[in-house]
Amino acid sequence: RPARLWRPRRVLVTPAALEHTHGRAMLARAEAQGIPVERLAANRLTGLRHADPRRAYVEAKATLALVVAPPTKLRLQPIPPSADWRFDLAEGCPAHCQYCYLAGSLSGPPVTRAYANLDAILRNLEAYLGQGAVTSAQAERAQEGTTFEASCYTDPLGIEHLTGSLSAAIRHFGAWEAPVQLRFTTKFAAVEPLLDLPHRRRTRIRFSVNARAATRYEGGTASLDARLGAMRAVALAGYPVGLTIAPILPVPDWEAGYAALIREAAEALADVPDLDLTAELITHRFTPGSKQVLQGWYPGSDLPLDEAGRTKKLTKFGSVKYVFPKDVMGAMRATLFAALARDLPAARILYWT
Questions:
Q1: Which DSSP string do the residues of 127-171 spell out, in sequence order?
Q2: Kind of pairing between the strands at 96-97 and 218-219
Q3: Domain map of the chain by residue range?
Q4: Rg value, the chain, Cα
Q5: Is the CATH code 3.40.50.12110 the one for domain 9-186?
Q6: What is d(CA 313, CA 322) in angstroms, rounded to the nearest whole number?
Q7: Packing angle between helix 288-297 and helix 53-61, nearest 10 degrees?
Q8: Parallel, antiparallel or unpaired: strands 63-67 and 37-39
Q9: Contact 116/306 with Cβ under 8 angstroms?
Q10: Tell me: the pLDDT tens digits for 118-170?
């Protein structure tokens, strides 16, 4: 069955976006799919806020805006523990995950903004080659070269049918004669446009997966079965792949749930030649700000956001976050590490957090 593709209710286009070839190409894609297009008179997005946060959320989540990335987006930042550098093809995500970490990271209504100045974004990466201090500084990961993470503020595969930006980035890294790696993670499954690209194994595609009992928090995404099938497809196409098991939650019977997830992943990857597989394990956490935003977006959610059941921690920037208590974290870590070692030993665990 073909993967379900996001269809925004409208596409907003700024004048500046149309000054770029890629911006015009994205507009052509939207028009070819019959999506209503609104050409704005100015480059600022306005009229997106409402007194009712739920209404603002619904309208913003149904909107794609074609814009130019501001100059700050060309000043890359390290993104530990995932990669040496973060760069953005877009900002915002079409999924409806009730634990969305972007709720605490991005301000304003969650419009998905796709960047038209793609050529400048990709050209800018060369200045950061060999300058990494995250994965490049780790003996066990230095062979990856300088790593660039493209999915911090978006799910690039979820909007690829509208942007083409991810394919362009994969081609760019495939043609880049240097020790580099493009990395992105996704909850979507429409990988067909990527299968025949000249990636030259310089792109690692990671699939964000969870125990089946937790997938009910992941609205608007591909099913777990579809994601695992897509992971097999890209692995057979020669891509390095990864499991991003996140966010790990103490759902009912969580030990069996996560063990079953890892067994299913192992079955999906059975007999893949030259398999290059990693695993990243990320437990659920929230901040006071993200809790407030998420409860406005999803007022009926039963996602566990009770501070009484968490441990309060300060980030390196002095802000507050709530994580699971030490005993719960220890039990989760031991269970998942044991399941990976037993059922998916090919997976290199990159980090637990």
A1: GGTT---SGGG-TTTGGG-EEEE--SSB-GGGGHHHH-HHHHHHH
A2: antiparallel
A3: 9-186, 188-284+324-353
A4: 20
A5: yes
A6: 6
A7: 80
A8: unpaired
A9: no
A10: 999 999 999 999 999 999 999 999 999 999 999 999 999 999 999 999 999 99
pLDDT tens sequence across 169-194: 999 999 999 999 999 999 999 999 99
What is the token pair recorded at 18?
A: 């149309």
CA distance to 131, 157, 164, 205, 226, per residue, from 167 (Å): 25, 9, 6, 12, 20
Amino acid at 157: L
Provide CATH code, domain 188-284+324-353.
Answer: 3.80.30.30
Tokens (6 digits) for 54? 């739920």
Paired with 244 in beta bridges are 208, 280
pLDDT, tens only, 51-78: 777 788 889 999 999 999 999 999 999 9
Check residue 264 and report its DSSP letter. H
**What is the phi-psi region of residue 253: left when phi exceeds 0, alpha when psi lies from -120 to 50, beta otherwise?**
left
CB contact at 8 A, 314 and 278: no
Does 9-186 match 188-284+324-353 in CATH topology?
no
What are the strands, taking DSSP E only, across the chain? 10-13, 37-39, 63-67, 77-79, 83-86, 90-91, 96-97, 112-115, 146-149, 180-186, 203-209, 218-219, 241-248, 277-283, 311-314, 320-323, 348-352
Task: For strands 203-209 and 241-248, give the pairing.
Answer: parallel
Query: pLDDT band for position 321 (50/70/90)?
Result: very high
Going from the C-alpha of 183 to that of each of 140, 199, 281, the distances in angstroms are: 17, 12, 16
How many Å from the N-terminal Cα to the C-terminal Cα in the chain?
35
